[in-house]
Amino acid sequence: MTNINLLQSALNAASLRQSVITNNIANAETPGYKAKQVVFEDILKQHLNNQTSNFVGKTTDPRHFPIGDSSDLPAPQVVEDDSTVMQNNGNNVDVDQEMTNMAKNALWFNSLSKQMNNQFQQLSIAITGRSS
Amino acid sequence: MFDSLNISASALTAQRLRMDVVSSNIANAQTTRGSYVNGKWIPYQRKMVVMEPRVSSFSQVLQGQLQQQSQSGLQGVRVAGIVNDNTPFNRVYDPSNPDADSSGYVMMPNVDVSKEMVDLLSASRSYEENVTAFNTSKSMAMKALELGS
Hints:
The structure holds two protein chains of two kinds.
Chain A: H1 3-26, E1 36-39, H2 41-50, E2 77-80, H3 95-128
Antiparallel strand pairs in A: 1-2
Helix pairs in contact in A: 1-3
Chain B: H1 2-27, E1 35-37, E2 40-42, E3 47-53, H2 58-66, E4 77-84, E5 90-93, E6 105-108, H3 113-145
Antiparallel strand pairs in B: 1-2, 3-4, 5-6
Helix pairs in contact in B: 1-3
């Protein structure tokens, strides 16, 4: 798995997280709504830990056994916490928390896109032989 | 990526409607002739906005499963309806009022202006939060456009 693929999957996760956070903020006063979260970093860590060898079998059919490590990218998951209650109407959105998470997520997205640009720049240097 | 912009937009619409309803309540805080029922004037009834999460339809969920997208089902918020507040009307003694009954009492709307002001503040804060969320999503989309350049 190349760096660009990894960054792509992380950017997808950041984009999905932005949607989830905006949805939580939009429903901050909706009765019965439960806040959702995106789990990605743990899945990615697990994925990278499982990547032990460079010997990877290509799976061309979903029934194939994965050899070494499956080549598909780790996908983010949306989870819902319905055990807590913040307001009288059963809603558990903590707006301060959501705004903080959104700022963090935007910074993370920006650093990822910068990394991605650096990767492309390196590729461009390798192809053209000059760094402009 | 555009999902989050649409979600914020739906919330902006909903909060704006809440502000409109609050304005209507405050404007009609003294309206004794809200509706004409059985030959009698009924005062204005306080109105409230009911919101609910907008969920995706069956076909959208099926499409998402078939294309193996990450199933979020996030569509923002929508206004389920505007309902009347059925708390009893305020009874005020004012014999000179044209709508006073035989014993001199007038039914006034069940609008509590201080409650409306709190609602108005809450709606306007929510609006600001959603504007912030919208701007963040927009700047992220702009960053995504600059990828590879």
